[in-house]
Every structure is written in C-alpha cells, then in structure tokens.
Amino acid sequence: MTMFSFRGSISLLVGFAGCYSPNDPIAGDGSDDASTGATVGAETSNTVGSATVATTASTNTTDTNTTNTTGTTETDATDATQGTDATDSLDTSAGSTDDGGPLCGNARMDDGEACDDGDEINGNGCNNDCVESGTVLWELELTALQGLEHAGLDIAVAPDGLVIATGENGWIGTFAADGVEAAPPVEVADIYMGTIAVFADGDLAVGDGESGDFGEIRVHRMTTEGAIFWSELATGAGSILGTQGLAVDEDENVLAVGTFPIQQNLWFGEFASDGSPGWNESYTPNAGSAGIVVLGDVACEPSGECTIVGAIDSNGALMQGGRSGWFQQISPNGVEIWTRTYDPPSDSFAANCVAMDQAGNAAVIGSDGADVWIRKYSPEGGVLWTVTYDDPNNGGDGGYGCAFDGEGNVVAVGAEARADLGEGNNAWIGKYDPDGGSLWTATYNSAADGNDQASQVAIDATGRIFVVGTADLNGDSRLWLRAHAP
Q: Fewer CB within 10 Å, N side or C side of the chain?
C-alpha cells in the first residue's frame, strides 16, 4: 500500500466556557431541570448538573431529559422518581487577592480563577486547577484537505499522552494534549480508518473495512506516520460488514469483531502483536431463525477479558429495525463468560460502543429508539444502572462513543436532534459518575447548523476528555476535535 503525507489547514479555537459548579441537590418531583448552562460563542453549550441517584429498583431524573435506573437484573425498574434542581450564578468578576496573590485551592474566588472550591478533587464542578468541570479547553475544525471530505471516526490517547484521531480516506492526525499539531497528518491509501486501538509503544492497530459496504475484516499494525508493519485478513468465508470493533489487551494481542451478514452470524478473533492469527469464534443467535447480529464494538480490561456488544436483528435484514441488544463477555481465550440481551420498548436498538474499567465493569452506549441509551454492567454481568437521554425537543438522539476515566466516571458522546432551534443535529457529550448520576453535558453546533455528531471519545491520565466527530457544513464533512476539562 502507498502512503503520502501532507500538512492540512487546521484552525484552532481556544475557549474557556462557563461551566457552573453544582449546588447540593434539592429534592423535587422529577420534572425540574437539574442543571445550569453556559455557552462558548454561539456554537458551544456546556451544562453541569448534580443528581441524586435512587437506590436499587428506582428511577433517578437528572434533568427533564435524562433518566437513570439502577438495578441488578435485565429489567429496568421505574418504581420511584427523584429529581434535582440546582442553579448557580457565577460572578467571575468577584475575584480577590491578598499579598500572596491568587491561590488556587483557598476556597475563594481570586482574580484569574473560574472557580475555587478549596479541594483537590477533579470533576466535582470545580477542578483542582480552578477550572470548571466540563470547560472547553480547545477545539479544532479541520478544513478540506486536497478537496477531500474527512468525517471524524475514532480517537485514542497514546502512552506518551499524544492524541491520535482518524477520519475517512485513511486520515491520521496526531496532536499534543493542548491541541497543537504534533506531526503532519497523513493519509494512508486504500485503508478506511474505521476503528483504532493503541499498542504500548504508540503503534496503531487499525480495523479496516467500511461500514455500510460489504468489505472484510482486516487488521493492520502501523505507525502514526502511516508505515504499515503487517496486515492480516480474518479467516472465514463470505461477505463481512467491515471491522466494527478493535481492542489491544495487556499482552499486546489485537481483538477484532465484525459481522458476516450472509451467514447471519458474527466473527470475533485474535491476532498476536506480530500479526499471527490466534483463536476465532463465530456466533449465530437464534439458530435456525432469520435473526442476525450486527456488532458494534469490543473492549478489554487488563486481565484480558473482553466485552463484545451488538444487536440482534429479528427481521433478518440489516438496518430494518426490530433489534434487541446483545452483550457478551469472553475470556482471554475466547470462551464465553456471560451473555445478556436487552429487549427495548421501542423495538429498535443499536449498541455502538463498550468500554471497560480497571475493575472489569462494562459501560455500553447506543440508541434505544430516539434516545441515547447507556448501561453499566458488573464483572458478573449484573445491571448496575441504566441512563437514557432525550433532547428537549424529543427528537431522534443517538449514542456513538464511550470511555471510562481513572475515577470510574463514564463519558458518552453522540448526537441530539435540535431541529426546534433550526440547528439540525448537534454533537452531544455527557459525563456520568460511577453511580450513573449526571455530572455535566455539552453540545456543539457547527456554523452551518448542519447534522453534526460526536463519534468517539478518549480520556488521558489527567482526566482530560478528547472528542472526535464531524461538522456538517452544508454537505461538506469536516473532522472536528474538542478537549474538555475533567
């Protein structure tokens, strides 16, 4: 394969959004809005809220559009509802200094501080650097490169802290944590950068195969400069709907998942770090029926156990609805540990992302009808909580990407429909605490009010959140990047 490099034209927008620290929750009837808002320019909104999470078998509402359910079985419970209502008015001009000058952490607002709650905790509304949680740190909107359109597809943080983003047409971009371009972007010919994972030395595992076209499950190992070490094709016959999920475990093995639509089953398997094929398995749900599985993603935790997510399409045809959720955890050798299913009330479901934390919990994000759907499973497969998000206009929303941070918080990204504002779809980002309580949400609307979306999210060791997506500028797709404070 050939590879060429070039420097794209990139605009860097730096902003510090007002992002209000939450007050203590006030019990309500579940109908009050639980969050406050702040805007960066005319295109960015960022909301911080606080929530009281109900006990097992109860429902918690963090605002009028987000529902949180905790439980221990696959059945969502809605026996009781609690709401919160918190509103802050942050006066950033109320700074004060003493002879020693501003001091972050002294529990008072000094000049140059956005907040100061006096503690060293990140993500609780005011971070330990006196920046409000969820603040937009920087934003990039990639201009058209050599006349090609680049939709943002995936993002990862390398061990050295560099942020690696991928887009259509084999595009790879590498950035420092402050948004500065670390190396010229490259475009690798004949590769669709559908999904990526990072090896310990910073190399990329790249899943090839364009979703929506019958392609193949092919995995590459390459540098961020596009130099390819090896390329391997998954074993198996028949047409495959691309490589839909990829992960690198602690032993540097690459786990890949994909779908064989013709055979009505899914494929998941392993490649060693040198590309040697390992085990592989196929799974056919509802054997003898017309049901097929459409896979969404795979994630692994340090011990090598992995969780695979997808949806069973009972109608026997791709993209025809009638789907239920399908989630399976496997051992490092590909042996099934547990399998769970979810029957949505909407009869239309997509599982698009899974993340695993250090303890082996799994967070799944997708779309349940017209809502963003997030669920957390325990290592044993028990349901810990479920959250849904519905935009204020009750439009068609979707969840596409997810990640755990080091504190066990879950960040989910996707899109919300805001035709009521004349904005089409806006990119959507939400952060939730380990118990499913909403910490803050943020959105992005491009200048053209097009159908924007956030595709995937990655989090570095400091808790900074990096999002990749697509800005729709009158049909011209632009890769979009953003960084948020924890």
A: N
Parent domain of 166: 3-15+134-484
| Other Cβ atoms within 10 Å of 479 Cβ, number | 28
Cα dihedral 453, 458, 463, 466 sign: negative
pTM (2 d.p.)? 0.77
Whether 30 maps to a domain, the answer reads no
Supply the mean pLDDT for the chain: 74
Any domain includes 54: no
- Name 137's Cβ contacts closer than 8 Å, sequence gap at least 6: 14, 16, 178, 179, 464, 483, 484, 485
Residue 64 lies in a domain: no
Q: Where are the beta strands (DSSP E) in 9-148?
A: 10-13, 35-40, 44-49, 58-63, 66-70, 81-82, 136-142
Q: Is 258 helix (H, G, I), strand (E, B) or coil?
A: strand
Q: What is the pLDDT of residues 67-77, one digit of tens each?
A: 555 443 333 33
Number of domains in the chain: 1
**Inter-residue contact 192 to 168 (CB < 8 Å):** yes
CATH number at residue 278: 2.120.10.30
User: In this structure, what token pair is assigned to residue 37?
Assistant: 């808002």
Count of alpha carbons within 13 Å of 58, Cβ hemisphere only? 13
User: Tens digits of per-residue pLDDT, 435-461?
Assistant: 999 999 999 988 888 888 999 999 999
Q: What are the tens digits of pLDDT across the range 393-417?
A: 877 889 999 999 999 999 999 999 8
